[in-house]
Amino acid sequence: MGDLLSASVITVFIASIILQTMPLILASVGETIGEQSGVLNLGIEGVMLVGALAGYAAAVATGSVWLGMLGGIAGGVVANLLLLVLNTWLGLNQIVVGLAVTLIGEGITSVLYLQAFAKSPQSIPPNSWSIPGLSDIPVIGPAVFRQSGVFWVCIAVLVVVAFLLSRTNWGLAVRSAGQKPASLDAAGGSVMRVRAQAVLLNGAFVGLGGAYLSVLATGTFTPFMTNGLGFLAIVITMLSRGKVAWIVLTSLLYGIAVAVKNPLQLIGVSIPADVFQMLPFVVVMITLVLFARSSVVPPALGNPYTRGAR
Asked: I need a labelling partner for 150 at 20 to 30 A (CA). Which of 159, 165, 183, 209 fits?
């Protein structure tokens, strides 16, 4: 027990939670913005992969973690342009389009990675600064000190988004577009414009989550590396009822379930790898069973809107 409570084990545990949780939080916040406006993005898995590959490529090319994050944001926005055109402007079935985006994202990122990086894999170079002692921890150490600045910027952005959604006219317009779009239209607002903004912000946050996963959490890109994380983000979004604080708390359960293997391995506890792989999904399923009845989705979610239609 003493080894389990040592400073190094606790540090690794906390750092692992952050590394595993942040991509999920960012993707869930992006999905929340979209869903609150009435747009369901089932393509979040594909968009995350596009953001992950774009962020990885930008970080490798420039040697900058920050530019890698910006690359992920750009990749996510570009990937969501398909949703913007087909879902928001043309009013096509959001479920079909979302699943298509997932398949396209998975396929195109795999092909591009194999063409550009598979023959000569490259690791993202570390920043010039480090934290003495902490950065020397095998595997997890480099990721910890690389993510420090980005982590705090992401936290600040999450606070701002939570404020905007709950305390501003823009947040009210977003919620109106998802709950009573006709009322927003009658009040002089533009449902199309609000939903378009939400879709682009959705892509930016989902892409950022993908970049966080490739650039910081793993330091590399591998095809299908999200491993269902995008679909988990959709579940967490629906459980969180549009509240960023609930997104963070629910995502932490997943992060803890994933990160627990690191301290146990450090102290020599031997548990089959399959148990660790299924544990996070079991935790999410239990959470879904316990709280699914209290989840609330916007009434207009998934429904296209035509101005003047009743």
From this structure: 165
**What is the fold, at CATH topology level, of the domain defined by 7-122+137-294?**
ABC transporter involved in vitamin B12 uptake, BtuC (1.10.3470)
Read off the pLDDT of residues 1-13 as tens digits, 9 standing for 90 and up. 455 556 666 777 7
Nearest-angstrom CA–CA distance, 198 and 192: 10
Give the global pTM: 0.87
Q: Does pLDDT of 134 surpass 60?
A: no
- Confidence band of 192 (pLDDT split at 50, 70, 90): very high
Q: What is the pLDDT of residues 137-168, one digit of tens each?
A: 544 445 554 556 788 888 899 999 999 999 99
Any idea which residue has 């590394």 for tokens? 19
Dist. CA 29–CA 206, nearest whole Å = 8
- Nearest one of 129, 177, 167, 169 to 149, comparing CA atoms: 129
